[in-house]
Automatic annotation (TrEMBL):
GO terms for molecular function: DNA binding. Keywords: DNA-binding. It holds the Pfam family YjbR. The keyword Transport does not apply. The keyword Oxidoreductase does not apply. It comes from the Bacteria. This is Predicted DNA-binding protein, MmcQ/YjbR family.
Length: 119
């Protein structure tokens, strides 16, 4: 997966916005103003930070050499995944989806209903 594919995939999800809240090179993807993915555009090799269930986060780090605890993030809940890695594009998309879903589930029921995630 390259950086353009990452951006295209993230913004294709419902109610996603992108911004540069930290600096001019850290692109952040949010659902309802809560981060689910971020990437440093100047970082080589390219990588993405995604939120993760704590137990799964550890499993991913043990299984893939390209997955580490996220720098400057809560290490229990965030992983960094190198985009040019031993993970397939489908695997990376799966973990972006997982991050997005965790954030959506953390929204209030009222907000989830307002956005159409629940009826």
């Amino acid at each position: 997966m390259n950086i353009e594919d990452l951006r295209t995939y993230c913004i294709s999800k419902a109610h996603v916005s992108e911004s540069f809240p930290f600096d001019e090179s850290t692109l952040v993807f949010k659902v309802s103003d809560k981060m689910f993915a971020l990437t440093g555009l100047e970082r080589i090799p390219h990588a993405v930070n995604v939120k993760c269930d704590p137990e799964m986060a550890i499993e991913l780090r043990e299984k893939y050499s390209s997955v580490t605890s996220a720098f400057h993030m809560n290490k229990k809940h965030w992983n960094t995944i190198l985009l040019a890695s031993d993970m397939s594009t489908d695997d990376i998309k799966k973990w972006i989806d997982h991050s997005y879903d965790l954030v959506v589930k953390s929204l209030t029921k009222k907000k989830q209903k307002e956005l159409g995630f629940i009826k």
